[in-house]
Amino acid sequence: MSSIMVDKMKKHNFFAGPAILPAPVLEQAAQAVVDFEGMGLSILEISHRSAQFTAVMEEAMASTKELLNINDDYAVLFLTGGASSQFYMTAMNILNEDETACYVNTGTWSTKAIKEAKFFGNIEEIASSADTNFNYIPKEFAIPENTKYLHITSNNTIFGTQYHQMPTTNVPLVADMSSDIFCRPIDVSRYSVIYAGAQKNLGPAGTTMVIVRKDVLGKVNRAIPTMLDYNTHIKKDSSFNTPPVYPIYVCMLTMRWLKQMGGVAAMEQHNKEKAAILYNEIDSNPLFKGVAAKEDRSLMNATFVLNNDDLNEAFLNACTDAGCMGVKGHRSVGGFRASIYNAMPIESVQTLVDVMKEFGRTHG
Ligand SMILES: *Cc1c(COP(=O)(O)O)cnc(C)c1O
């Protein structure tokens, strides 16, 4: 079989999700589709109960714990249904009908999380940046007494904002980290639940990582359908039913790569460098303007606009000509969004910045 040369054919991938994966991960993942670890079988055609896949699941769980320094009070799960299913599963599993949970609304995904949690308890939206189309992270808010948990969206994929300091509170946190999991170190001990759809910063679409503190479970009065109960999956090491074998395998490979790169602290440095190069160009090029408040700018998704909207199409064409794909902004923000996740090499960011500079010269 000819080897797969991902690097040589790759464009610069700025898509928000599903999104860029490390080139060595794609190569190994492609190989495993044909022949998984010399078994003479594809990873797509073996039992999820085989020793070979059980080892993959174990490594994926152990690597998550190692990378984020997670102790045994927590379980790691790889579920299906997307981050969107966690909007309700979190509340269903830990919030009683008569209890209160607080939510900070920082965008589209927070709004959806709030809507779904309302099926299961008293949900208070204690702060929101909806007044300015979510271009900042609210920092001043009072959390009522007896709040069961505070839910945040750590990185707002669409609007390009990110918490750089987690809220200071003793109330346990629940966080949607879909678009910034593993982008930096976090203190997991402050969270009851962390969830992340894999397809932004971790792997392909099809699995959602859930990190859950075991002692917060089993305390609600309601009956929970078997598949929606975290404890079902914890008891069966995330293999109660057929897990999404291939997405989990690719996540595991990404975590191997993360460890080789020096772990999440090294990744944070790398991400800060990349973000600085891009935001510096956005700020210094008179044609462009950043969307998010400077202190809340995301390391993962940079949102920006052209001061002259008439040039939008020409700029996108210039990006495409240079092989920079996926730079078009989300419809609810307009302009442009460059997603620069963990796997994005600094050279790709530099290529986009070069396009912006050249665009400034020819259209300024
Ligand atoms: C993409 C995204 C989601 C939705 O994920 P699905 O897996 O499509 O349900 C939720 N939250 C955030 C922050 C996201 O970026």
In short:
With 364 residues, the protein is of the alpha/beta class. It contains ten helices and 14 strands.
Structural notes for this entry:
The chain has helices at residues 6-9, 23-34, 51-68, 82-94, 108-117, 230-235, 245-260, 263-284, 312-321, 346-363, and strands at residues 12-13, 74-79, 100-105, 122-128, 147-153, 155-156, 161-162, 173-176, 191-197, 208-213, 288-290, 301-306, 324-325, 336-339. By secondary structure, the chain is of the alpha/beta class. The chain has 2 domains: 25-260, 3-Layer(aba) Sandwich (Aspartate Aminotransferase, domain 2); 262-363, Aspartate Aminotransferase, domain 1, CATH 3.90.1150.10. The strands form 4 sheets. Strands 2-10-9-8-5-3-4 form a 7-stranded mixed beta sheet, sandwiched between helices. A 3-stranded antiparallel beta sheet has the order 11-12-14, with helices on one face. Strand 3 (100-105), helix 5 (108-117) and strand 4 form a beta-alpha-beta unit. It is globular. The protein starts with 5 loop residues before the first helix and ends with a helix. Residues 17, 82-84, 109, 153, 157, 176, 178-179, 197, 200 line the site of pyridoxal-5'-phosphate.
